Amino acid sequence: MRYFFLLLFSISLHSIELTPSPSNASVYFLSPANEESISGKVKVRFGLENFGVAPAGIQIENTGHHHLIIDADLPSLNLPIPADDNYVHFGKGQTEVELELSKGTHTLQLLLGDFRHIPHDPPIYSKRIEVYVD
After folding, report:
1. What's the pLDDT score for residue 16?
2. Whose C-alpha in 13, 18, 26, 115 is 20 to 30 A from the C-alpha of 39?
3. What residue stretches are annotated with the DUF4399 domain (predicted)?
């Protein structure tokens, strides 16, 4: 019975319908700048073009919410975005955050998720940037 459930769950994950997005939508960093050196906390501000922001759980066409990827690669683009120290969710519709990162080099990337935390089709993600924390 357990294997039957796992098979059904696996099939259902592959059949998730992705929320459409316009091809001209984009997400980017307002701050920090790529290769910026920062002392102390890092204020990250998200920019969005040709798309809107709505909290998780609320299904409104042409909207999503931000996810900040820290020191990790893009996740699978047809499954819910993980939630941990490397994949930070902004499900209330936030467009900025102040982070305390350890000293050294870090990568940051933005990925929009739909009301279910699943990337859109086509996915909307930023270029990956590097920041240096003193």
Report:
1. 82
2. 26
3. 44-133
The b-or-e profile of 67-91 (16+ CB within 10 A means b, else e) is bbbbeeeebeeeeebeeeeebbbbb
Q: Is the pLDDT of residue 5 over 60?
A: no
CB burial of 42-61 (b: ≥16 within 10 Å; e: otherwise) equals: bebebebeebebbebeeeee
Q: What pTM did the predictor assign?
A: 0.88
Rounded to 5 degrees, what angle do the CA atoms 24, 25, 30 make?
125
Note the pLDDT of residue 46. Answer: 98
127 — pLDDT class (breaks 50, 70, 90):
very high
Count CB neighbours of 66 within 10 A.
24
The CATH number for 113's domain is: 2.60.40.10
Number of domains the chain contains: 1
Is there a contact between 60 and 54 (Cβ–Cβ < 8 Å)?
A: yes
